[in-house]
Amino acid sequence: MYQVPFQIPSIGYEDAMARLAATKRFGIQPMLESVEDMLAELGNPDERFQSVQIAGTNGKTSTARFTAAILGGEGLCVALYTSPELVSMTERMEVAGHPVSEAQFARGVAAAVCAGERVNARREAAGERPYDITEFDVLTVAAMVVFAEAGVDACVLECGMGGRWDATSAAHNIRSVAITGIGLDHMRILGDTLEKIAGEKAAIIKRGRTCVLGVGTATPDSVEDVFLARCAEQGVTPTLLRPADLSDAAGEMHPGVPRAHEGLPHATYRITRRPDRIGAPLMVDVRTPGADGRAYRELSVLKPAYQAANLACAVTLAQQFLGRPLDGDALFQSLVTCPTPGRFDLVVPDPPVLIDACHNPQSVQTFLTAVRGVDANVATRPALLCAVLADKDVRGIVGLLAPEFPRVYVTQTASDRALPAQDLARVFEECGKRPDAVFSSVREATDALAGTSYVACGSITTAGEVAALLRPGVQNAAGPVRPHAAPDHHPRVQIFDDVTDESDDAADDGRN
Question: DSSP strand E in 218-290: where?
């Protein structure tokens, strides 16, 4: 069993959060040496298990969740590292399908902080500049400690940003990787073209690893060429994921028709049943390639159709990681019970309130594909409650959302990156949709809209704050849950008809 090789202080959760807050001044640092040295100082806890790494602009959290659930169903004790949290920071680290305790989280942070201090003390003694150790550096190292102490067999790592310099890339024993897709996000850091961003994410493809290239990497050709060139350079034969019908990847791909690449292995999926309302099942057939290939039929999740691509990617990735076919019965059970909180997530059943963590134009487009799939009539959809972060493509997000909802309300989250609500209202007006009301906080908005059916989206923090206020038993910086009771201001809408509490029970068990 792994043990931290030096004494660390015993701290509580609040103290751990304060220590993390102190690292935010360093922002984002494109380097791996700090994390590598901290892990080495701790005796490389990441070497106590084998890992899967998933990158991509959108879809990587859901793919990571599905992959962890599948591997857990195969009898492994599986850890999951995702970001950001929806409500509580502990949600970033899961063991066997459950967020770690506040005590485990605090111990991991204490170990990581001490490791950083020891590394930097030696650097200073040697006349070298100390590392600027970021919040994500500390969290990633902390997760490796927590997972090693828990004795996990495998870990699924979601890249926080990019891939080349992402802290998760410092982990050893990464056996399999997947890249879900490419979109324009974090352009100041990753690059201002799809091809540049693809190059940063392609860096996780390395010799000796298996690789799945998701449907979002197939177009345009110039993006796919970046990944194929990296694979060729590293001697890796990628598996290309393709929908059997291009309509099954609506919202997941950039314009264009994927090339055949007949010399490369393909995994395929086909949607056999689309949900016609929230809570109805999505059913998917997946076929994996090679000698270990297998057809997995009628896999089911209570999710919108866009999750088919993520589900198929996870099935293919998990099979490659194990190096053998999956148990069909266990696979079905693992997927149907896997939570994806914050993704088309019903937090109040009546009148329905839905949250979604879409936060850039590509993820908004995917989200809207699901909305249209369950209600084609804009006039009968619920209202929109929107808040976005100022460093995102605000006009791109608003331009897509504005024509899709009959009424719009805008607000701002508690994030220091939040776009002021009045500024967001002006963007909506410029896009042809005057907001019905402007609220100064998410709490003010949820109070005012009590008894109204609406969809809350625009940023992960928007989804998280609404969940904390409306979902029973959830609490975060936005404050404790308070029951909302008020008369309906608007009639119920068809998109949510016949929804019951059990339609999203799985999502209540986890985070985004």
Answer: 239-243, 266-273, 282-287
CA nearest neighbour of 71 among 155, 159, 1: 155
Rounded CA separation 75/69 (Å): 10
The DSSP secondary structure of 347-407, one letter per residue, reads EEETTEEEE----SHHHHHHHHHHHHHH---GGGS-EEEE--BTTS-HHHHHHHHGGG-S-
pLDDT tens track, the chain, 512 positions? 899 999 999 999 999 999 999 987 655 556 799 999 999 999 999 999 999 999 998 889 999 999 999 999 999 999 999 988 888 899 999 999 999 999 999 999 999 999 999 999 999 999 999 999 999 999 999 999 999 999 999 999 999 877 888 999 999 999 999 999 887 554 455 556 888 889 999 999 999 999 999 999 999 999 999 999 999 999 999 999 999 999 898 778 888 889 999 999 999 999 999 987 776 789 999 999 976 778 999 999 988 888 999 999 999 999 999 999 999 999 999 999 998 888 888 888 888 899 998 988 888 988 998 898 888 899 999 999 999 999 889 999 999 999 999 999 999 999 989 999 999 999 999 999 999 999 999 999 999 999 999 999 999 899 999 999 997 654 443 333 333 333 233 322 333 333 322 222 333 223 22
Instruction: Single out the residue of 237, 290, 301 nearest to residue 268, CA to CA.
Output: 290
Residues whose CB falls within 8 Å of the CB of residue 196, separated by 6 or more in sequence, listed in order: 190
The alpha carbon of 497 is separated from its chain's Cα centroid by a whole number of angstroms, namely 28
pTM for the complete prediction?
0.81
CA distance 343 to 62: 8
- The dihedral over CA atoms of 449, 450, 455, 457, expressed in degrees to the nearest 10, equals 70
Which of 351, 369, 295, 302 has its CA nearest to residue 326? 295
In a 3-state reduction of DSSP, which class is residue 30?
A: coil
The span from the CA of 83 to the CA of 61, in Å, is: 8
Tokens read off for 361: 């134009």
